[in-house]
Amino acid sequence: MLWTIIIILLILWLIGFVIDLGAIIHLLVIAAIVLIVIRLIQMVIGKR
Predict the structure, then answer these.
(1) 28 close to 13: Cβ distance less than 8 angstroms
(2) Model confidence pLDDT, tens digit, residues 24-44
(3) Is 28 exposed, middle or buried (0-12, 13-18, 19+ CB in 10 A)?
(4) What is the C-alpha separation between 47 and 6, in angstroms, rounded?
Protein backbone atom coordinates (compact mmCIF):
# COMPACT_ATOMS: atom_id res chain seq x y z
CA MET A 1 0.00 0.00 0.00
CA LEU A 2 2.72 2.45 0.95
CA TRP A 3 4.78 1.64 -2.14
CA THR A 4 1.70 2.28 -4.30
CA ILE A 5 1.33 5.76 -2.81
CA ILE A 6 5.03 6.46 -3.35
CA ILE A 7 4.83 5.37 -7.00
CA ILE A 8 1.73 7.51 -7.60
CA LEU A 9 3.41 10.54 -6.03
CA LEU A 10 6.53 10.07 -8.14
CA ILE A 11 4.47 9.73 -11.34
CA LEU A 12 2.58 12.91 -10.51
CA TRP A 13 5.91 14.60 -9.82
CA LEU A 14 7.25 13.57 -13.24
CA ILE A 15 4.05 14.78 -14.91
CA GLY A 16 4.59 18.07 -13.14
CA PHE A 17 7.80 18.62 -15.10
CA VAL A 18 5.74 18.59 -18.30
CA ILE A 19 2.81 20.67 -16.97
CA ASP A 20 4.93 22.88 -14.63
CA LEU A 21 2.64 23.10 -11.62
CA GLY A 22 5.28 24.71 -9.46
CA ALA A 23 4.80 24.47 -5.70
CA ILE A 24 2.41 21.51 -5.86
CA ILE A 25 5.13 19.35 -7.37
CA HIS A 26 7.59 20.26 -4.64
CA LEU A 27 5.01 19.26 -2.03
CA LEU A 28 4.57 15.91 -3.78
CA VAL A 29 8.32 15.34 -3.74
CA ILE A 30 8.51 16.15 -0.04
CA ALA A 31 5.58 13.84 0.68
CA ALA A 32 7.21 11.01 -1.28
CA ILE A 33 10.52 11.45 0.56
CA VAL A 34 8.76 11.48 3.93
CA LEU A 35 6.90 8.27 3.06
CA ILE A 36 10.13 6.58 1.97
CA VAL A 37 11.87 7.59 5.21
CA ILE A 38 8.93 6.31 7.28
CA ARG A 39 9.02 3.01 5.38
CA LEU A 40 12.76 2.61 5.92
CA ILE A 41 12.37 3.31 9.64
CA GLN A 42 9.59 0.72 9.85
CA MET A 43 11.83 -1.84 8.12
CA VAL A 44 14.70 -1.18 10.54
CA ILE A 45 12.42 -1.40 13.59
CA GLY A 46 10.81 -4.55 12.21
CA LYS A 47 14.17 -6.35 12.00
CA ARG A 48 14.80 -5.98 15.74
Answers:
(1) yes
(2) 767 777 888 888 888 888 988
(3) buried
(4) 22
